[in-house]
Write a structure and sequence with these properties.
Largest sheet: 7 strands, mixed
Oligomer: single chain
Shape: elongated
């Protein structure tokens, strides 16, 4: 028996969690990482006793964690033949450096590394490095990704005491090489150095119980995070804007007392698309809301394109703009230094889409999209065609109605001002919560057999 919300919501069950509004005011302090990208607003976890009664789990002693090493400066030098990167550090580190192909990238993984850069002090890429990113990749694990202009080899990776100071330096030299040598390097790297994400990250998540009269589970998905900033315009980062809005959505939903609410990330940490999907599936979410903000690269078009858009899943994009956006969002894992999926992925995607079309899940997603657009129109400027669709990977869920919201265009002066406004963020969060209420009010509680 599974708890359902309207006919067709078979297997979409609410999870037996306890939530506390008091936890909403808590956030991850700067320079620290959450224990997991999964978050619930619970003051204390509950465990099942032998009688099935939820009991508070006892708190275990927390280990003493040494302070993280900080990067205080960075600089590039060299040419298209050989390029050097130097990081100034407050202490020694043990970096794991390796390369990935398709596209060519150099990956630097370091435990407990903090990035203390002012935006104005971040150096631009140089020489063989065409772009670079940095940030929290997982709990207590930082990552730096260097995009290379072509095949490269690592000539030097060394941590040394800085001359004349009390600090340290990490020195990385990369040199251009040929395709055959680069392929040999890829094959010779230990498998353990490749950035596999542990499935066990979510092994301790509570599993949906199928309890009668359970609340619907709403999964809120703030896009990007950590070393994946999303769209960046000046000092405004998409990952920060969407996390702020997601927190307001969570607060509004919890205030109703009608929902259990979970988030795919609660702080500035990278969460892969596969992890986001796994979290939603394991909790058997009744509704999945992914929150993003868009941007337009063409300067001559930026000020003419603005407004919010709500997307659902489809194999064929509703238009070219939607197709390009889905491609950009689906590439987030590559930008964060994950490997490209296998050649079978396209066939798997088609199978998921065909299965999805056979279910009422797709109809529910379209229904919620219409409800959400109607509610957002009351308070938010909408795009000319606000209901669109494309093959977004994060929406490929056969049992959970899912939508992706683009709140507006950071490249547009008007939208950017609103996206940074706390009052606007609260208003949007409230509008999304109201749409969720309207959506579930149309679906009387039933029991699936």
């Amino acid at each position: 028996m599974h708890q359902c919300w309207g006919s067709g919501f078979a297997l979409v069950t609410a999870v037996n969690l306890v939530f506390s509004a008091s936890a909403l005011a808590q956030s991850t302090p700067a320079g620290t990482s959450p224990a997991s990208p999964f978050i619930t607003t619970t003051a204390a976890p509950t465990v099942k006793s032998s009688t099935g009664v939820g009991q508070a789990a006892s708190a275990s002693p927390q280990p003493i964690v040494p302070p993280a090493v900080r990067i205080t400066g960075a600089r590039f030098s060299g040419t298209q033949a050989r390029t050097r990167l130097i990081f100034d550090l407050t202490g020694p580190i043990k970096p794991n450096v390796f390369v990935l192909g398709e596209p060519t990238r150099v990956i630097i993984d370091v435990p407990d590394l903090q990035f203390k850069f002012a935006v104005s002090d971040v150096p631009t890429a140089h020489g063989l490095v065409t772009a670079w990113r940095y940030g929290l990749f997982a709990a207590r694990k930082s990552r730096i990704v260097l995009d290379a202009s072509g095949p490269v080899r690592i000539e030097r990776s060394q941590v040394v005491a800085a001359t004349g100071t009390q600090g340290w330096q990490f020195v990385l030299d990369v040199a251009a090489t040929d395709a055959a040598t680069f392929e040999a390097i890829l094959q010779s790297q230990p498998r353990t150095s490749k950035p596999a994400l542990k499935a066990s990250t979510y092994d301790d998540l509570p599993v949906a119980s199928g309890k009668l009269n359970a609340k619907p589970v709403i999964m809120i998905d703030p896009g990007h995070g950590g070393l994946d900033p999303g769209a960046v315009v000046g000092s405004v980062y998409e990952k920060n804007v969407v996390l702020a809005v997601a927190r307001h959505v969570r607060a509004s939903l919890i205030a109703t007392g009608r929902y259990d609410v979970a988030m795919t990330r609660s702080g500035d940490v990278f969460v892969s698309l596969d992890q986001r999907l796994k979290t939603s599936g394991k909790l058997r979410a009744d509704l999945f809301i992914s929150i993003h903000a868009d941007s337009v690269g063409e300067v001559n078009l930026a000020q003419n394109i603005r407004g919010a858009t709500v997307y659902t899943l489809s194999e064929q994009a509703s238009d070219e703009q939607a197709r390009l956006l889905a491609e950009k969002e689906n590439a987030a894992d590559l930008l964060a230094g994950l490997e490209r999926g296998s050649g079978q992925e396209h066939d798997q995607v088609r199978t998921i889409l065909v299965d999805l079309l056979k279910r009422e899940t797709s109809n529910f997603a379209h229904d919620f999209r219409g409800t959400l657009v109607t509610e957002l129109r009351r308070h938010v400027a909408m795009a000319r065609d606000p209901q669109r669709s494309a093959a977004f990977k994060v929406l490929k869920q056969t049992q959970t109605p899912s939508v992706l919201i683009e709140l507006g265009y950071m490249s547009n002066v008007q939208d950017q001002k609103l996206l940074q406004s706390v009052e606007w963020q609260k208003q949007v969060g409230g509008s999304i919560a109201t749409a969720v209420d309207a959506f579930f009010s149309k679906r009387p509680q039933t029991t699936a057999r």
